[in-house]
Specification:
By secondary structure, this protein is an alpha+beta fold. Helix content is 34%, strand content 10%. It is elongated. Bound molecules: flavin-adenine dinucleotide.
């Protein structure tokens, strides 16, 4: 193992949805961000999850997806 010194404003451990969203928010506020990941691939659990995310978000509406929270829960329960 080699040691490295990194100059950063924000250090985020983990590249799941939470870490990447935090990184995006920090970058858009002009901060220098470093993200570290202990696994060999980024993505965390989003690599293996498969269902609905960000129900009724702007991105989903713009993509023509119209699903209420109740419809999503009902679909999942049916599944
Ligand atoms: C099988 C499955 C199916 C799912 N299906 C759905 C679904 O259909 N719809 C839905 O909304 N949600 C679903 N989820 C839940 C959703 O995937 C998770 O809630 C979400 O991905 C969690 O994101 P996170 O960033 O908080 O954590 P994680 O995705 O767990 O990310 C954490 C990351 O941090 C890394 N890490 C941990 N410790 C360190 C460290 N010390 N240093 C560096 N890196 C570190 C980990 O390796 C990982 O990459 C599912 C989850 C699973 C497991």
């Amino acid at each position: 193992m080699t040691n490295r010194t990194i100059d950063t404003d924000v250090l985020i451990a983990g590249t799941g949805g939470t870490g990447l969203a935090a990184a995006y928010a920090a970058v858009t506020h002009g901060l220098k961000v470093t993200v570290i990941e202990k696994q060999s691939q980024i993505g965390g659990n989003t690599k293996i999850s498969s269902g609905f995310f960000a129900i009724n978000s702007r991105e989903q509406r713009e993509a023509g997806m119209h699903l209420t929270t109740q419809e999503a829960i009902t679909q999942l329960a049916d599944y």
